[in-house]
Write a structure and sequence with these properties.
By secondary structure, the chain is an alpha+beta fold. About 50% of the residues lie in helices and about 10% in strands. The chain has 20 helices and ten strands. Strands 3-4-5-6 form a four-stranded antiparallel sheet. Strand 9 and strand 10 form a beta hairpin. The two termini are about 70 Å apart. About 25% of the residues are buried.
Length: about 500
């Protein structure tokens, strides 16, 4: 930290000023003989002297921070042409940084005061110098601890803030309120006026906690991993901590180690509102016993299916394979047992008990809300022996898969009276698999048509097993064949040529 010794100059005429060159490769001050510069330096030196004496300022702290000796407390910079740099450097320029004597001090706008101190009146200059000295005193005190230590202090104080502490204490309840406020289950609750009133209050109650980024409140000892900017406000002994990634900022007061948030809320009132809203939801839920019973039935039904999950998954896989051949005929909907399982497996239905209906229902996620109304019918059609029913279903699906699976002589595509059976389509797909993305479509067409061009011979494509496979087809019909295979989902058009689809890979 501080100034490199080789870049510092003392002038006995200005004992409270340390002179330093600034700018790239500017390593020395050759002369300060100009009358204008001498006049400004005298005024700055006098202003510093008066303030140090008046406030009995401990200049040793600033000198230690800047790594300088003597009486000097404030750096003033000179440009390459031996003229004053008209802006004083902010103390942050030296905080936790080591500047290279070889490269010189860089001129960075964010590390200089906007005020042009060479154009100020005596009164204005006095005020400006006092502000600058205060800033250096504050930042010098900050420099006694590392950036990481200050961030830890800020984070620890953040978690002690009454609103943040309340967020930690009531995290499950607050999260449940937020979740339920967006839940489709609200549409099923009776007494919609009460539900609407609750939702309106929920937006108000959760507002103090919504301003807190999730990554800052995940646990009580850390915050988000993003880089943070620190700004120093000396007249309030405050560090302004900003996370641009989270769009969040806090204000830390070093004297009391306290945090101020951008918006202020009454913690006692916030606590009361959370508890009241919790009770109100439970009161509404208690008036919907039939709905709560139906959701419990769904939970128990899902739990009952757990021992048979492997067989359910096998059945769904078989049904999916069959549907690939019968694209326009959805099969799963034809089997109520599979419909039940799929809807339940796509839903989150906790089986355990919770401290309140709010907490429980916030953990419920249904694939569709209509499941609640269908559960009674599902239970009536549920076979007594699920294992036996699944064995029969799997066997039935296997037989159906055999029926729909393509045979070698099945006609897949007909173009202008020319038909192509499954066996021949497999050969075409085989060509695409090996060469589809290596060559453009017209080259692949020529291979199938058996056109022995110079290009094909040079590439030795005339020696492949696909050469002349469709020699009786006109080339334009072979191109149409590619178009039809793409339309049916067997091929996928690429920037260069084609590739075979996942469906084609499975049926091949």
């Amino acid at each position: 930290m501080g100034l490199p010794a080789s870049l510092t100059y003392h002038d006995e005429r200005y004992p409270y000023i340390i002179l330093t060159p600034i700018g790239k490769k500017n390593k020395q001050i050759r002369s300060i003989g100009h009358k204008f510069e001498r006049g400004i330096l005298s005024r700055v030196n006098e202003a510093i002297s008066e303030y140090v004496a008046e406030q009995n300022i401990n200049i040793k702290q600033i000198q230690s921070f800047l790594n300088i000796e003597g009486e000097a407390v404030l750096p003033v910079s000179f440009l390459k042409d031996d003229t004053l740099h008209p802006h004083l450097l902010k103390p942050e320029f030296f905080l936790w940084k080591k500047h290279s004597a070889e490269h010189g001090l860089p001129i960075k706008a964010e590390y200089r005061y906007e005020t042009d101190f060479t154009r100020l009146s005596a009164e204005q200059l006095d005020r400006h110098i006092r502000q600058v000295i205060d800033d250096y005193m504050f930042v010098a005190a900050v420099s006694l601890q590392s950036r990481g230590e200050w961030l830890n202090k800020i984070i620890n104080s953040f978690h002690k803030h009454p609103i943040v502490a309340l967020m930690h204490e009531k995290k499950e309840t607050i999260s449940s309120i937020e979740t339920m406020n967006q839940s489709a289950l609200l549409s099923l609750l009776k007494y919609p006026e009460d539900v609407a009133s609750w939702r309106n209050r929920a937006d108000i109650v959760t507002r103090p906690f919504r301003m807190l980024p999730e990554q800052w409140t995940m646990d009580k000892s850390s915050c988000c991993p993003h880089e943070k900017d620190l700004y120093f406000i000396s007249n309030q002994s405050m560090i302004h901590c900003v996370c641009d990634a989270c769009d969040f900022r806090v204000f830390y007061f070093t004297s009391g180690e306290e945090i101020l948030l951008e918006e202020q809320f009454d913690p006692a009132l916030a606590r009361k509102r959370v508890d009241t809203l919790h009770r109100k939801f439970n009161k509404v839920a208690d008036q919907n016993t039939e709905l709560l019973h139906q959701i419990r039935q769904l939970s128990f039904l899902k739990e009952r299916f757990q021992p048979f999950v492997p067989k359910f998954e096998e059945a769904l896989q078989l049904a999916g394979q069959i549907e690939r051949y019968q694209v326009d005929e959805p099969l799963v909907e034809s089997y109520p047992l599979l419909v039940m399982y799929k809807k339940l497996s796509d839903s989150k239905l906790p089986i355990g008990s919770f401290e309140s209906n709010l907490i429980w229902l916030s953990n419920v996620e249904l694939a569709e809300v209509a499941m609640v109304k269908r559960v009674d019918g599902w239970l009536k059609t549920l076979p007594d022996d699920i294992d036996h029913a699944l064995n029969q279903l799997i066997q039935q699906l296997k037989e159906l898969l055999k029926e729909v699976t393509y045979q070698d002589d099945d006609i897949i595509i007909t173009i202008k009276g020319r038909s192509l059976d499954y066996h021949s389509v497999q050969h075409v797909l085989d060509l695409i698999h090996y060469y589809g993305t290596d060559y453009p479509a017209h080259t692949l067409v020529q291979v199938l048509a058996g056109k022995s061009t110079n290009k094909l011979r040079r590439l030795k494509l005339h020696e492949t097993r696909w050469f002349g496979l469709l020699e009786e087809w006109p080339e334009k019909h072979i191109q149409r064949l590619f178009n039809q295979l793409e339309k049916k989902g067997w091929l996928m058009k690429q920037q260069k040529g084609y590739s075979i689809s996942q469906f084609a890979e499975e049926v091949m």
